[in-house]
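Memo subject: From amino acid sequence to discrete backbone structure tokens
Keywords: amino acid chain, backbone geometry, structure tokens, three-dimensional fold.
Body of memo: The sequence and its backbone structure tokens, given next.
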Amino acid sequence: MTLRIVMMGTGSFALPTFRGLCESDHDVVALYTQPDRIGRGHHRHRHPLKEAADEQGITVRQPGNINADGALDELHVLKPDLCVVAAYGQILSPDMLAIPRLGAVNLHASILPKYRGAAPVAHAILAGETETGVTIFQIEPKLDAGPILGVESTTLGAKETTGDVTARLAQLAVPLTTRIVNQIEAGTVRQTPQDPRQVTFAPRFRKADGAIDWTQSADQIDRHVRAMQPWPSPFTFFRHASQKPLRLILLETEPVESDAAIAPGEPRIVDDGRLLVGTGEQAIEILRLRPQGRRDMAAAEFLRGHAVAPGDRLTAEDA
């Protein structure tokens, strides 16, 4: 029996799964996604999921509130057997969850019950985890708390950013989703309750959370730099003599051993071109960065245009 599936997703994490479902034996009858965002100059942001649906001739719905009466009426008309949700961006009400015959399942970018919430990958990197994965669970009204239907795990690379890992997990989710949807259709899917003792939370970050605290250890700062990419971006301010502080986004760092005592936030040039900064423990080398208003560059290129002198500091604030 072919299932009538409604996909609900917005971000790039959902795109591979949407394409995979479209190529499966099931019938994807609609894509629900967030309303288009208007950027500077009143230009609409590109919406890859919506474009993919248009290519497949699949109905697109973009309600501002999926739980509003009108949106629920539209969903009823589609007569879905199952909703598959991935990074949709709206909380689903009990009334909405009651419409699909088999309920709704959600793709989550962690190994639940760890890292429930909006930013699971970044929090896993921050915590120094060596493994992460994708979990499919049955949606219940409580946040990310439904029974687990399937998990695929993977190793976290020592140099990977949140963006890198999220892209890998998006691909990992495709065969997992297909397998679980087929099991749901056959009535063979197994549900495993989440252990509440293992629950951790991964709330969304604010822009200010990107600020680097140089009193942390070099390992913690390196994890912070990777976790905050692409959002909210790991930043610091280069304070040089009487010049205006320059905002820097750090793109790649490496904890290093240093024989010299370097104070937290103190920049130092070594080996004629390497930029080291003191931390609360060890030192860290800045390999790549983006000065405010400039392009990405290697630290050596940055140093050719910016002298480092005694008394200079990298700080979390520009004041």
Q: What stands out?
A: The longest helix spans residues 162-186.
